[in-house]
Amino acid sequence: MESPELHAWLPSLLTWHWIAPFVKLGNKKVLQKEDLYELIPGDKAIACEELWIKSVSGDPRQLSVWRTLFRCFGRPYFLAALWKPVWLAAVLTQVYVLKALVHLVENRSKDVHWWHGMFLVITIFIAVTMQSIAQNNLFSLSQRLSMKVRTIISMAVHDKLLSMNLALSNKVINEGKLLNLISNDTQKLVDAVGNFHFAWFSIFEILVVSAFIIMEARASGVPGVVFVLLCQPIPIVMSSGVRKFRMEAIQYTDERVRMLGDLIAGIKTIKFNGWTDPFLQMIGRIRDNELYWIRRSLCMKFLILVLKDGIVPIASMLIFCTSAKIHGHLSASMSFSVLALLGILSRVLNFAPTGIQYAGEALAAAERLQCFLRVSNYCEDFTNDKVSTHADTSVSISKGNFSWNVPECKEKNLLSTIDTDSFKPILKDINLTVRRGQIVGITGAIGSGKSSLLLSLIGETNCLEGACMVERPVAYAPQQPWIFNDTIRNNILFGSKYDPPYYEKVKTACCLDYDIEHFSASDDTEIGDRGVNLSGGQKARISLARACFSSAQLILLDDPFAALDPKTVSHLSQYMLRGILQGRTVVLTTQNYRVLDCCDKVFMMDGGTLQQLPRNNQVLKLFWNVKSDNDKEEDREIIDFALKHENFPNQSLTTVVDSQISISLPLTLSINEHKDAQNLNISVPHENSKILDSSVWKEDDTQKNDFDSFFNVNSQDLSYIGGFENSEMPTHSNISGQCVNEDNGISTTKEDRIEGLVAWKTLKRYFKAGRYSNFLLVFGTFICTQAARVILTYWLAVWVDNVFHFQLGFYAGIYACIIAGATLFSASRAYVYSYTTCVAANTLHREMTNGIFYSPLLFFQQNFSGRVLNRLSKDQASIDELLPITAQNMLENIVGCMGSIFMITALVPWFLLTLPPFISVLFFFQRRYTAVSRELKRLDGISRSPISAHFLEALQGLTSIRAYKMEENMNKRLANLLDRNNSAVILFQHVSRWLSFRLDLAAAFCVTVTAFLVVMLHDHIAPGIAGVILVQSLQLTGLLQYGVRMAADTENHFTSVERICAYTDLQGERPLRTAISLISDNWPTEGRISFINLTMAYREDLPPVLNEVSFEVRPKEKIGLMGRTGSGKSSLVLALFRLVDNRACNGSILIDGIDIKDVGINDLRQRLSIVPQDPILFNQTIRMNLDPFERHTDTELVEALKAVQLFNKIRKWDKPLDAVAGGDGIEFSVGERQLLCLARAILRRYFPMNFRSSCSWTNIMT
Question: Domain with 422 in it: what CATH number?
Answer without folding.
Answer: 3.40.50.300
